[in-house]
Amino acid sequence: MKVKDSISDEELLKKIESVSWWHPFIFRNYKVKSIRIRRLGVLNSYKDLSVLDIGCLDGFYGFDAEERGAKRVLMIDKYTTEGNKMAFELLDTKVEYRNMDLYDLDKIDEKFDVTLFMGVLYHLHSPFLGLQRVSEKTKKLMILESKFTGDKEDPIPILKFWKEVIPDSYWIPSVSCIKEMMEVVGFKRFEEKYIKGIGQDDRIMFYAWK
User: Fold this and answer.
1) Which residues of the chain have pLDDT under 50?
2) pLDDT at position 202, please?
3) What domain count does the chain have?
4) Domain with 101 in it
């Protein structure tokens, strides 16, 4: 990710240290202190693809998509973080950001080759409606990452109500529940991988194709 040439190293370091970061950015040779330590491997190349990053927080994955060749990147989030504002201030980028809710995606008059839908599903009041909105804006591929509940091999689809564990978190789906919801909203082929965490922090990532 290219930092603007007009920003000196001294100024860059001062700006980096002035805000809290969610994602593990590296600006030039300076690594930020972030809540998330690990970066998820998503796609090696987005060459000539349009990308929608939903619930982007600081925006690392949207900026990463641009760096990996995306021709168009739109990031959205209902909460604008300090890190997001600072990243746009620091980076030489054409990425677009909109402060908006997932449920308002129908107001965007375009579709995207790839949608990034990571760490969002369990924050939704209405996860099925949310997936519908995402599907409507996806032309080729959705990359979904989420917490999950229960045994990953259990065929029974479950949505577990998750009250007041993390602010704005409501439902944790089982793996089979995620699969069945994705099928109903129009995704036809899936590849999944599990991301090892600690205790209940194990996650699943789906690559879901139309």
Assistant:
1) 198-200
2) 79
3) 1
4) 40-209
